[in-house]
Every structure is written in C-alpha cells, then in structure tokens.
Amino acid sequence: MGWWTGDVAAAIDPWERSDGVISIRPPRPGESALLLAGRDEEWLRWMGPGADDPQPTACILIGGTVVGWVDFEVGQEWLAPGEVNVGYNVFAPHRRRGYASRAVELLVEHLAAGGKHHAVALLIDKQNHASLGVARKAGFELVGERDGSHRFARFLG
C-alpha cells in the first residue's frame, strides 16, 4: 500500500499523470470492486490472494477505463532507506500491450517529483517473464536476488 490510499489520496492530492496513451491517478470511490474483478489465475500465481479492499497508489486508465493498478510500499526490511517497492497488475484483456511498463514509468515520475524517495525496487519471480520484460522496458537494472526472485532497481533523479 502506498503513502496515501484510495479516497484519502484523492481528497489530499488529486494528482494524475499521463503519457498520452495511459494515465494513472488515485483510485476513486467504488473502484475497489473493479480492482477485485480484475483478479484472475495469473494474478493469483504472482501476487497471492491480495487484500479484500484493494487501495493501490493509482489506477491505470485507458480512455477513462480502469485497466489495472500500480502501487508502491515502504518499510520492507529488504529495502534500503529512501527506497520503495513497486507492484502492478494489468487486467487480462489489456495485458502484453506495454501498459504495465508505462504505468511504472509514470509512477516513477510521480515519486521523483515528490522528492521523498531516491530509488525504486521491483522484486519479480524468475518465472514471471512478462514482469521481467516490464522491468527491462522501464529501465530497471538487475541488482541481485531475494527469496528466489530477481531484484531490480532504478534510481530517481
């Protein structure tokens, strides 16, 4: 879960970022049902069961339609001070179109503008080839392994 969540995020900081193809913005009331409906077997395989009331940092939108989410968290014992861990999911009908890497890039821009963090990490299962592609496409560097997963990093600057 990010610094701000759900309705609180929208009320405190109604930000939005776009690259002309996708946009990201904090979730709005009622969108957690869409996020739950977007879960499938691939979600379960890589992410586990997830929260009953998901509140990611941002929803991913195409033409105003929610097609997934992107989130970050702090406080994991394996993160360095000032580093955040990023996660994401694109709903099945919209996968493998580059939306996840675009969303990660927009979130990285948002985090860099905030000035509170200096690096972003991705922890990706070695068998999750789609997410490994997201890391490469979004400019992350493989920096090690943790618990059987590849650990990628990208410095903000």
Topology:
Layout: H1 6-12, E1 17-18, E2 23-25, H2 31-37, H3 41-47, E3 58-62, E4 65-73, E5 83-90, H4 99-114, E6 119-125, H5 129-137, E7 141-146, E8 149-155
Parallel strand pairs: 5-6
Antiparallel strand pairs: 1-2, 2-3, 3-4, 4-5, 6-8, 7-8
Short structural summary:
This protein is of the alpha+beta class. The protein contains five helices and eight strands, in the order αββααβββαβαββ. It has helices at 6-12, 31-37, 41-47, 99-114, 129-137; strands at 17-18, 23-25, 58-62, 65-73, 83-90, 119-125, 141-146, 149-155.
- Can you tell me the CATH superfamily? Gcn5-related N-acetyltransferase (GNAT)
How many separate structural domains?
1
Q: According to CATH, what is the class?
A: Alpha Beta
* Helix proportion range: 25-40%
Work out the radius of gyration.
14 Å
Chain-averaged pLDDT? 91
Shape-level CATH architecture: 3-Layer(aba) Sandwich
Class derived from helix and strand content: alpha+beta
Q: List low-pLDDT spans.
A: 1-10
Please report which band the strand proportion falls in: under 5%, 5-15%, 15-25%, 25-35%, 35-45% or over 45%.
25-35%
Q: Which fold name is given in CATH as the topology?
A: Aminopeptidase
How does this structure look, described?
With 157 residues, the chain is of the alpha+beta class. The chain has one domain: Aminopeptidase. Helices cover 29% and strands 30% of the residues. The protein contains 5 helices and 8 strands. The protein has helices at residues 6-12, 31-37, 41-47, 99-114, 129-137, and strands spanning 17-18, 23-25, 58-62, 65-73, 83-90, 119-125, 141-146, 149-155. It has an 8-stranded mixed β-sheet with strand order 1-2-3-4-5-6-8-7, with helices on both faces. A hairpin with a 4-residue loop joins strand 1 (17-18) and strand 2 (23-25). The model is unreliable at 1-10 (pLDDT under 50).
